[in-house]
# Entry
Amino acid sequence: MSNETRDVVIGIDLGTTNSLAAIVGKDGPRVLTDSQGAALIPSVVSFLDGGEVIVGAEARALSISNPERTVHSVKRLMGRGMADLAGEVDRLPYTVVESDNSKLVRIAIGDKSITPQEISALILGRVREQAEAALGCTVEKAVITVPAYFDDAQRQATRDAAKIAGLTALRIVNEPTAAALAYGLDTSREGNVVVYDLGGGTFDVSVLKITQGVFKVVATAGDTHLGGDDFDRTIMEEIFALITGGDNRPGKVPAEALQQVRLSAEAMKKELSSAENAMLEIDVGGEQPLHYELDRARFEAMIAPSVELTLKCCRAALADAGLQAGDVDEVVLVGGSTRIPMVRRRCAELFDREPHTELDPDRVVALGAAIQADVLAGGNKDLLLLDVIPLALGIETVGGGFAKLVTRNSTVPCRATEMFSTSVDNQTGIDVNVFQGEREMVADCRHLGSFKLSGVPPMPAGLPRVEVTFLVDADGVLTVTAREQRSGQEASIDVVPSHGLTRDEVRSMVKESIVHAHEDFANRELVELRNKANNLVYGTTRVLDMPEMPFTDEQRTDLNADIQNLKKLVGGDDIEALKAACDAFGEKTQALADNVIGEAIKAELSKGMTQA
Amino acid sequence: MESPEGDCFSRLGQPRGIADTSDLETRFLRLSRLLHPDFHGAADDATRQLVVANSALLNEAYVVLTSLSQRAEYLLGLIDAEALERNKTLAPAFLMESMELSEAVEEATDKSALAGFAKDLQARIDARLALVGDPSAWDPPDLDALATALHEMKVFRRILRDVRAVA
# Structure
């Protein structure tokens, strides 16, 4: 439909340290800046005593004066439990606690606590504000990037954060893949590309094969707990040792000093990318300020084990892709930590070629996200991204074994089905535990959640056959459905995420969201319904316009009447009528949808056959 | 409903057979462009769900058809669903030999010995891949020989995984 105004869809890099947005305009992708020309928004949120919430650069500035109520690096907490963060939370100036009803961590602010999802939502809200100011229009849809090695819980947490921020995350895209898009845009390049992405909190490496405009990820590896923050921490440990005379137990360090040392360590690390030496003087309340010096050689020795870990991941990803280092055509470096000369040097050595660093490593991911956003908005039809699931998905078997149903590096969307039965006569429910990981035993994998199959018809043990389908969507997020084969009955499933929020929790957070406290919820529901109706009208009109569709005149008249009715309701503000019309029309077009897709495939297949 | 249902060959419009026709990837990419959720973002929920499911079926078919061992096992299952099960019991001589090999791997410590085992195992796997990948083995299909080769390959793969775990 030519007169369709395309949705504004932005790309957002929701980073550990900084976040930013980008969009594809007439002249290609560009980052969206504030009035001063700054694009990067520090991923920091500060809660003032009076209840005011500050996000971004101003919050970062408060991290020394308001350390216990200023949250940085929240991305490292997304979808994580206390057990995942051992040894890390002690070095955060704010307090991390466990939720009452799940393993999800929360951040204590005074006598209240808030989830990482809500903090991320605040950051996303700020990014959105900046984007809306830059574009001069409202923004409701976005593509948001995550580390490729994020598991299901971390991806789901990111999606929930977007929801809480009132944004529709059209797609969760892996950061290295986004970077490859940004680099691959200008040419019709073909070949094998390795993206090495070392950010503030995470490391990813992805191997992509580019053919005819299709970016197919063939392997990915990484570590969601390895990044620039860790380099800062090695420096921090030395400084603490100096301050406390070797006794550097975390409890000894007040929050304010911790924050000051952290910022100093980060500054020294950055300085060592260009200088050979960095120096620090800290006032610790004694007669003399404390003097600490670090040269590049020693810094490199300190971070060498971490850098070697990243190279090991690179080798593993190459092996998974079935490639030798020599088969790699291009290497792309992404993430602020790839400014470190040692990182560049070691990468160049491993792949025996000079890596690409032309694009700003802090911006390239957002630019790539914008390109993907453009594809989803319908602006770019040449490019297709085929990404993978980073870690195997499976279920617990008898004795705590892990049965992998979907292997790592499977192209998404992907699916697997598994048959379950009962072990006791007349059993009507079956419990299933879902895990993600690469090890043999579930104890070494990550528990994503449990679900109970209920409504199994009472039968002798072993007789019911419940087919459970695990479907991983293009975001790498899992959904589970089940059907009892003998009765044909749809068994119901209630998935309880072990490190995430339930649907109801997300819903209530959306309502209570600080970001949208000023908004009328009913009004927002109307906006969402209007979007849905518009989508329905758009999709159906497009199908009706296809000459090859075998519709009867009667069907056409009927559908056109419905379309006119929907259009009329979209213009009004009767929520209930619009909702009812949408639901009815959606049901009617479901059958239509099945048919259309089938036709398209048939046409394509017959085309392929005659060419072959 | 006409969708990429049916077996993996028909989903990708490929003739049923062991030999890979060279346009498999082109066909996969072309169908992906039709089916991938990215190109159906504006559709309604029902269509989008269908698109994701169909896209998953297509991806599954591509994986099965591009891996020679998976393709062989799948094809064998289509010809005779019981063939693999029927040939599950491997010859005593083979079992003895693989057990000895497995024990030798367990006892090996130095890198060069492990590398030697890895090379040996890979050669054994490759030999069976060559067997199942030979079109003449399927015309007419020698079901028992094919099933046995696939089972033996799995045994060697398991030992090879142990070697890699130690190395």
